């Protein structure tokens, strides 16, 4: 069936008066997901089920607002969830390189951090004051005084014994020396040698006996010193404990419901008592010159607050748009000191995974896969259900000694947002992916066009204008946005869900409305935006149009030619796609090769185009070779095509050219054709129908509209028509036409004015060619 389409079938126009509001300002903004019921259903299932591995992959094309929609959906759910725990790291008093991770109820980790800071300051000040106080000095003197008296009494008795034996005791760097006396005076070494041997022998014997007494006295002195030190340390411990115990006990009472905190406070208390000397050392260091380099301080008594959920209501929703390894898993920072890099537990920093723990983490899938270590580490964390903070260098051949913080238990729902092909690749090549991401949420690029969906479009416009402080859109502008949504969807019955593109149109229209000081955005501003966007991107298209106008690219839009037809294709250049006519020719000769694809012979034909040409051979065999051989060589070519071609949307066009050449019946050059064909001669739908029609219309307008020109499309593509206004006006005025056909028979009638006769002519020609070929066999 052949149908010349009326203007009403070329565009589905939204009547502004059909809208229930005068402008988008009359509607309430809604932070919800529009037109994605299937995706919402899948996400709700994935979020509700708590079994391991039910993370979500949100698949869809870019621009459908997946990230924003997912974030809003999660926020609506998260507010009713329990707020997760805080996490902090504290010093491990048993292993400096293995900081402890402590879980506290939401909001209490920051309290604990402040409490320990206060404890540190109070304990330092109170201990110093206690050691500097008169009471401490009195107790210390009383404690050490007895030992000093015992030492003095011991040396007094030793001195008495040495006098009795004729020796005097003197202290030296080598210890206590016993010098012989004569007449109550020490004898010099020279005088000692002058004594007779008997007298010298007597002195040496007494000296040997005295040496034993001296060594015994030294041992007793050392024991007294040791006991004095122990007594001193015991006194310090008692003083410090007296200062500390009420401070620590107060905190233990406050945090009595958190065993990890109680254990940490006990360890801290014990460590302070074991290292009281550092407080005294700090007192001495205060008197050092300021120019002296300070030692790197590892403040063991601080808290490193890693996750603070004190201001979070419900479960956290974290969107990490730059998922590097450190941004996701955290890092251990280092500081330069004396030419070396040093670190401690206070330099541990958390990542997005820590912030999202107990809630939801949204990640762009392609960026996760591009960052080194990120994907494998994410899978490992989800599999082991814990977060480990490691230095990236630990995964290299050469490693350095660093901290190994305790892992933190992980309970998070990860939502990966990516393209459908990314999902398929991961599913095919990563066995862990199937186990870790068991839920797929498909975001559709279009939705039904009905009153409910149109109202959602209006709500979207209102929400955008309100949140971005844009001008609101009037009735005419809203209707134009609806029409543009159908154009983006390439379907009169659908609306595009590429809300990112729609939002950009509204933002730009707001700019043009501002230049006119308009109160509202109107249809003219929307039209101006669309035209300006097209103009900014259409330089290449204009250059091709110039080449056609100069006849450098040969396109005829009038007259008739045998074996020549205007085909249509779509060129995609970045953010611009436009239709481009191409001259397709067919030459027929004797032979047995059948249909010869010149593009394929030149290695310029893609697999889909090659398949389309082979289907033509199948059609010709079914139509003409049931009772005779198909004795022809039919050469098909896209003239002036130097960049290759793919797709089967020109297969019907190529078939028309072959039939024309076979039957020697001319084809109207004012009619361009698009559509694929099957082996049964049915014309099938193709893509880019609007761009193809508009592309040929532009060439006809460039060369002059005659009133006979037009485009022939598959009947199954009629619902895809959303043509521009200038094309609609030309059709309305009878200057341009659009025909819809269902079969090759319909199409050949539009192109030649004949139907059955052309097939008769073609069959007759083939029979003659078979006879001629037989003569030369």
UniProtKB/TrEMBL annotation:
Q: What class of enzyme is it?
A: hydrolase
What EC number(s) does this enzyme carry?
3.4.21.53
User: Which intervals of the chain form a coiled coil?
Assistant: 207-234
Which Gene3D superfamilies has this protein been placed in? 1.10.8.60, 3.30.230.10, P-loop containing nucleotide triphosphate hydrolases (3.40.50.300)
Q: Which PROSITE patterns match?
A: LON_PROTEOLYTIC
Reaction(s) catalysed by this chain's protein = Hydrolysis of proteins in presence of ATP
Q: Where is each Lon proteolytic domain found?
A: 559-754
GO molecular function, a single term: ATP-dependent peptidase activity
Task: Quote the InterPro entries the UniProt record gives.
Answer: AAA_32, Lon-like_helical, Lon_proteolytic, Lon_Prtase, LonB_AAA-LID, P-loop_NTPase, Ribosomal_Su5_D2-typ_SF, Ribsml_uS5_D2-typ_fold_subgr
What UniProt keywords apply to this chain's record, in alphabetical order? Coiled coil, Hydrolase, Protease, Serine protease
Signal sequence range: none
GO terms in the biological process aspect are: protein catabolic process; proteolysis
Pfam families per the record? AAA_32 (PF13654), Lon_C (PF05362), LonB_AAA-LID (PF20436), LonC_helical (PF20437)
Which residues of this protein are catalytic?
649, 692
- Family to which the UniProt record says this protein belongs: Belongs to the peptidase S16 family.
Q: What PANTHER family is this protein classified in?
A: ATP DEPENDENT LON PROTEASE FAMILY MEMBER (PTHR10046)
Protein name as it appears in the record: endopeptidase La
């Amino acid at each position: 069936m052949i149908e010349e389409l009326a203007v009403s079938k070329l565009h589905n126009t939204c009547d502004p008066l059909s809208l229930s509001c005068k402008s988008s300002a009359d509607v309430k903004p809604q932070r919800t997901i529009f037109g994605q019921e299937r995706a919402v259903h899948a996400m709700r299932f994935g979020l509700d089920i708590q079994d391991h591995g039910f993370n979500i992959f949100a698949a869809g094309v870019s621009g459908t607002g997946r990230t924003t929609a997912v974030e809003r959906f999660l926020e609506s759910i998260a507010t009713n969830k329990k707020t997760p725990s805080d996490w902090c790291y504290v010093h491990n008093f048993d292993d400096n390189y293995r900081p402890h991770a402590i879980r506290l109820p939401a909001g209490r980790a920051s309290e604990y951090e402040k409490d320990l800071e206060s404890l540190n300051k109070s304990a330092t000040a109170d201990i110093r004051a206690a050691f500097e106080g008169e009471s401490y000095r009195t107790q210390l003197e009383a404690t050490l005084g007895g030992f000093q008296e015992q030492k003095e009494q011991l040396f007094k008795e030793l001195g008495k014994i040495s006098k009795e034996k004729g020796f005097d005791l003197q202290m030296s760097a080598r210890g206590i020396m016993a010098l012989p006396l004569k007449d109550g005076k020490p004898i010099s070494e020279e005088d000692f040698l002058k004594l007779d041997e008997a007298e010298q022998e007597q002195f040496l014997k007494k000296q040997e006996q005295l040496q034993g007494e001296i060594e015994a006295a030294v041992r007793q002195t050392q024991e007294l010193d040791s006991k004095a030190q122990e007594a001193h340390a015991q006194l310090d411990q008692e003083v410090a404990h007296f200062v500390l115990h009420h401070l620590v006990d107060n905190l233990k009472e406050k945090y009595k419901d958190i065993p990890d905190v109680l254990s940490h406070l006990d360890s801290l208390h014990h460590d302070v008592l074991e290292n009281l000397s550092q407080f005294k050392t700090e007192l001495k260091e205060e008197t050092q010159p300021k120019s002296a380099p300070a030692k790197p301080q590892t403040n063991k008594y601080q808290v490193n607050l890693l996750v603070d959920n004190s201001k979070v209501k419900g479960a956290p929703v974290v969107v990490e748009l730059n998922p590097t390894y450190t941004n996701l898993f955290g890092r251990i920072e280092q500081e330069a000191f004396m030419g070396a890099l040093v670190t401690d537990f206070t330099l541990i920093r958390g990542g997005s995974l820590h912030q999202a723990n107990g809630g939801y983490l949204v990640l762009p899938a392609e960026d996760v896969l591009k960052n080194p270590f990120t994907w494998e580490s994410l899978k490992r964390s989800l599999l082991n259900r814990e977060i480990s903070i490691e230095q990236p260098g630990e995964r290299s051949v050469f490693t350095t000694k660093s901290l190994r913080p305790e892992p933190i238990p992980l309970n998070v729902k990860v939502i990966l947002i990516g393209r459908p092909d990314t999902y398929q690749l991961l599913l095919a090549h990563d066995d862990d992916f199937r186990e870790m991401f068991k839920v797929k949420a498909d975001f559709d690029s279009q939705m039904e066009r009905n009153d409910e969906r149109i109202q959602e479009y209006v709500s979207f416009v209102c929400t955008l204008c309100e949140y971005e402080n844009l001008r609101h859109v009037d009735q005419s502008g809203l209707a134009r946005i609806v029409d543009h949504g159908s154009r983006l969807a390439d379907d009169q019955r659908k609306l595009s869900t590429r809300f990112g593109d729609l939002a950009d149109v509204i933002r730009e229209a707001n700019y043009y409305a501002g230049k006119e000081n308009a109160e509202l955005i109107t249809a003219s501003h929307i039209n101006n935006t669309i035209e300006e966007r097209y103009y900014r991107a259409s330089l290449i298209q204009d250059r091709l149009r110039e080449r056609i106008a100069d006849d450098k690219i040969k396109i005829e839009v009038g007259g008739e030619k045998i074996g020549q037809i205007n085909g249509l294709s779509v060129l995609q250049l970045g953010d611009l796609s436009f239709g481009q006519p191409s001259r397709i020719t067919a030459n027929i000769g004797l032979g047995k090769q059948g249909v010869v694809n010149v593009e394929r012979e030149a290695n310029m034909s893609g697999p889909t185009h090659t398949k389309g040409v082979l289907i033509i051979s199948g059609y010709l065999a079914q139509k003409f070779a049931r009772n005779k051989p198909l004795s022809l060589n039919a050469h098909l070519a896209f003239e002036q095509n130097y960049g290759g071609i793919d797709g089967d949307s020109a297969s019907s066009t190529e078939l028309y050219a072959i039939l024309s050449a076979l039957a020697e019946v001319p084809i109207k050059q004012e009619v361009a054709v698009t559509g694929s064909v099957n082996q049964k001669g049915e014309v099938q739908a193709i893509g880019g129908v609007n761009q193809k029609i508009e592309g040929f219309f532009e060439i006809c307008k460039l060369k002059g509209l005659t009133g006979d020109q037009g485009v022939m499309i598959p009947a199954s593509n009629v619902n895809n028509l959303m043509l521009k206004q200038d094309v609609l006006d030309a059709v309305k005025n009878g200057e341009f036409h659009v025909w819809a056909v269902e079969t090759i028979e319909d199409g050949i009638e539009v192109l030649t004015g004949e139907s059955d006769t052309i097939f008769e002519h073609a069959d007759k020609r083939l029979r003659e060619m078979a006879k001629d070929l037989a003569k030369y066999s």
